[in-house]
Specification:
This protein is mainly α. The protein has a single domain, classed as 434 Repressor (Amino-terminal Domain), CATH 1.10.260.40. Helix 1 crosses helix 3 and helix 1 packs across helix 5. It is globular, with a radius of gyration of 15 Å. The relative contact order is 0.18.
Length: 101
């Protein structure tokens, strides 16, 4: 596995865990004192991050660091790139109508 592929896989795994928490990139980065641009580049797989920052992100996601790395190694990159992202929903919940008539 080449380093760019590892970074891309790791970024996708981190994104999936953040989306599971239903938090936007911006909110996650702000809440955990990470620069938004830096965090976005991590999720895109274009930023080489230190083990200390990876540990901070793992703690913030409430996932063991070893699980993030294991999931990144096992991820089928071609298949994962075809899946659409599942960003947190904004606005009113589905099925609820507004009070305006």
């Amino acid at each position: 596995m080449t380093p760019p592929h590892l970074l891309r896989r790791l970024g996708l795994v981190i994104r999936r865990h953040r989306e599971r928490l239903k938090v936007t990139q911006e909110a996650f980065a702000d809440e955990h004192a990470i620069n938004r641009t830096y965090y976005s580049a991590i999720e895109r797989g274009t930023q080489n991050l230190s083990i200390l920052n990876l540990g901070r992100i793992a703690d913030a996601l409430d996932v063991p660091l070893s699980r993030l790395l294991r999931a990144a190694e096992a991820l089928d990159l071609d298949r994962a790139l075809k899946e659409p992202p599942r960003p947190p929903r904004r606005g009113r919940p589905p099925g609820r109508k507004s009070g305006w008539r």
